[in-house]
Amino acid sequence: xxxxxxxxxxxxxxxxxxxxxxxxxxxxxxxxxxxxxxxxxxxxxxxxxxxxxxxxxxxxxxxxxxxxxxxxxxxxxxxxxxxxxxxxxxxxxxxxxxxxxxxxxxxxx
Length: 109
Description:
The protein is mainly α.
């Protein structure tokens, strides 16, 4: 009978030792499962939470851009025309003043 009790006692001690090891192993398995579930959740979820717009522009945007370019080019044309007129008027004024200066020099002699 004592032989059976000794075997039972050894089995209980081995179970106690194995229980700690089994608990550690189960904890490691649970941790690995949690990590795998988290990776799956991250892989299935989109990388960012905001809404992406389509790559192309809408017709309204293209019309707005075209109108802005047209208005800008007309403004640039008018500015160039104004500069050309200003340059012509400046040249005429310089020629008239030069002629007046020459006449004043001739009369002064």
